[in-house]
Amino acid sequence: MKALLIALVAGAALFGGYHYLAGEREQARLQGYRAAEAVLKKEHAEALLMQAQSAEVERQRLERRATHIEANHLSKRTELEANINKLEDALDEAYTDHYRPTPAAQPQPVPECVFTVGWLRDYNAAFGGVQATAARAGQPDAEPWPTPGADAEYSNSQVSQRDLLRHAQRYGQWCQRNTHQLKSLIETVSTQGDQP
User: Fold this and answer.
1) What is the predicted pLDDT for the residue at 53?
2) Given this model, what pLDDT does residue 192 score?
3) Do 76 and 194 contact (CB within 8 A), yes or no?
4) Residue 56's pLDDT is what?
5) What is the pLDDT of residue 159?
6) What pTM was computed for the model?
7) Contact between residue 15 and residue 7 where contact means Cβ atoms under 8 Å apart
8) How much is the pLDDT for 111?
């Protein structure tokens, strides 16, 4: 019986030791799992931080680039406006309302050139924005443009040669501004990856 008792005590001790070791092993496993989880969370947080920093660097680069392109665009636009103003002044100074009917003749006033309302309507329509029934630009209270064949289309429009020259000049300015703006936009879009 003593042997049985010793066997039972030894078995209980072994069983207790086994459970103790199993608990220690479980604690070690949990501790290892938590440590690994903490390392993964730290690595993930560091990766997110690096991505955020990289995104911020890229955002700042794009902002600098946009500022550079905008400053360049505004500088060129200011230069273009100055050139346009010079051209306007030059046009005013160079415009002549005299001509020589023959090489040896004295200059004479240019004969009046009559542009009819119908011709002016068609001239404006040639630019693509005015229909025959639309009100005249800048004159919302004006009568609509006369339809082709109406008596009113044969009236003098009171538009002079100088007015048409000024219109052509303003249209040229508009084209130059649009061309410059389009070039700036193309430059911005096509060189997204380039440094400013």
Assistant:
1) 92
2) 61
3) no
4) 92
5) 87
6) 0.52
7) no
8) 85
- Residue whose token pair is 């440590």: 35
C-alpha–C-alpha distance, residues 78 and 103, integer Å? 42
Instruction: Count CB-CB contacts under 10 A for residue 88.
Output: 14
pLDDT below 50 — which residues of the chain? 132-135, 196
Q: Which residues, 6+ apart, have CB-to-CB distance to 134 below 8 Å? A: 144, 145
Per residue, the 3-state secondary structure of the chain, as one string, reads CHHHHHHHHHHHHHHHHHHHHHHHHHHHHHHHHHHHHHHHHHHHHHHHHHHHHHHHHHHHHHHHHHHHHHHHHHHHHHHHHHHHHHHHHHHHHHCCCEECCCCCCCCEECCCCCCEHHHHHHHHHHCCCCCCCCECCCCCCCCECCCCCCHHHHCECCCCHHHHHHHHHHHHHHHHHHHHHHHHHHHHHHCCCCCC
